[in-house]
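Suppose you are handed a protein chain with no further information: no name, no annotation, nothing but its sequence. What can you learn? This example shows the usual starting point.
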Amino acid sequence: MRRAGLNLSAALTAMIGGLDAGAASAQEAAPQPQPSRSASPAHQTPGDRDVSSYPASFFADQRPNTAADMVSRLPGFTLDTGGNVRGFAGAAGNVLINGQRPTAKSDDLNSILTRIPATLVDHIDVIRGGAPGIDMQGKAVIANVVLKKTSGFSGVAAVAPIWIEDGRVIIQYRAEGTWVNGDTRTELGLLGGTYVDDGTGPGPHVLRNGAGAITDSSYQQARAGGLTNALTGAWQAPVAGGKFRANFQLQDQTYVGTFTDNFVHAGRQYEKDDQDKTNGELGLHWDRPLNDKTSLELLGLQQLSHMGFSSIFDTVSEADFFGLRTTGGESIARAVLHRTQSDTLSIEGGGEFAYNWVNTHTVFLQNGANVPLPAANVHVDEKRGEVFTTATWRPTPKFTVEAGVRVEDSTIESTGDVVLTKTLIFPKPRVLFTWAPSSDDQVRLRIEREVGQLDFNSFVASSSLNGSGVFTGNPNLNPSQDWAFEAAYEHHFWGKGAIVLTARHLILKDVIDRAPITSGGSTFDSPANIGGGTENDFIASFSLPLDRFHIPGGMLTGLGTWRFSRVTDPTTGQIREISGQHQLDGELHFTQDLPAWKLNWGIDTFRGWTEHYYRFNEIDTNKLGTFDVIWAEYKARRDLSYRVEIDNAGRRGFVLNRDEYSGLRTPGALPSQIDNVERNFGIEIKFRVRKTFG
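A reasonable first move is to predict its three-dimensional structure. Written in structure tokens, the prediction is:
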């Protein structure tokens, strides 16, 4: 079950997606040297085959509202928003703004791009395979959004009422402004409203025995949602010979979910989940040139969060309560020295220090009796240091090499119910070879040792009392590691067309999955390192202009990712896939720009997926149907637009199936019970009005 309230950043991003525009830019650092540009849709000079530049005119027929709209139309480019994980380097996305990465983590990259009006974008450069003087953030492909120099005030106000098929009406809003006076810039924004969890909805709930015969049934009523608000701001000005920027974000979100069954035999069962989460972030960034070849970049980041969660589960014979309170934070300091040695060689090096901590307090009661949980009350902190260096060399106009190494040293300590101290050291070499035989073709080869970022949520207990029960935390996790071998081929055609094919082989170590843990005579499911394995990924994306097929202004884009992993199940010893992994994800988007009618419209389709979680006494299978969106946007004036959107037009369903075993799973054994529930959320109809100022 996808609970919107359990991930504040993701829920907020999903909620405000329909509002989609703002006035505050996220970053305006010193622009990097840019290749020359022409009036053609995308231009590459013979010496800059790794850099394609797309001027604002390239997007004119689309009449975009925001930088996010423009990035979504870049041929062959797929947005990677990064991850909300420990440290700064590991959370990088693949978009820069004026040559710099936004100094933020909880404020995701898509939201930042959404707050940049399209009218402020001068052009977007796409750098493939690396280029001297460009910080690639460890990515093979980067988009650099370059902003215009502006002055005065600009702002936006947007409101979106949303009608839900079950009769609910919710309202979402956005109001933002930017004040520019010379090199000084001030930004302020407020957004939020009510939201619903589209992973809920009514549907049949059926229990079967191992032979498949129905033993009980109900029609479950599941409904969830809440209220969320966020305040963002930034100030930028010249300081000490460089450019200084401070940005902040404050978020608060409540969530309430209720799940009610009236079984034929077992009677009434009721679960209610409540959550209130607040978090804040402050980012500081300063950079300045030291001479004509060298520049220094310093940044600091502070995050603090507090979350309270409770869940009750009542039946005719049982009353359970689960409570969790967590507080945590992250502090980061980072310094990078950039040097452009020549037009063909650049070097950078630096270091990062991060301190992460989390306090957890957990209680679990069954019929009023306390049930001890492993790692119920713990304090975990991590001190992590990293040094790194990277060199980018272009020996010929067709060939680029980017090579570097990072070395990470971290100490993790846990006190309370689990007392431990351990030190981890990981060298992380990386090399990327890029060959561009023509201006339309590029081949990329990458070899890298990757180290996953520990998710502190894995250290914390969680619950689904009306489902799989209580899951314990595990402070003794090691980060997952792999050796990655990747090859990619990219081809551009017809001005706006592109196809990108990628194949990747991973040799896995210390995979984080699920395993049993015993405490006080009871066995619980827990995250754990389960050993090594392999994974093969195949990714295909394309952008196909449809003008040649007599659909003027039409564009068809698609993305598909296939994953095949092999690990050893810690309970049965059998080979299986990694828990929670989707074997196939896919999406298809059709858009048509009709500038003569001031209209854009489109259809978006997101393929459904299936995921399995292999727990010690059950196998959970979640199936989400295909999600379809039909939309149209009318730009009445340059400063006024209206958008109508039908979400979940195909009424996808969400199926949760649990094969439960009366003890440890064994190969070939039949489950003792099969618990299957189907939820049908229904259609959403959104209407948005957006007005810009200045």
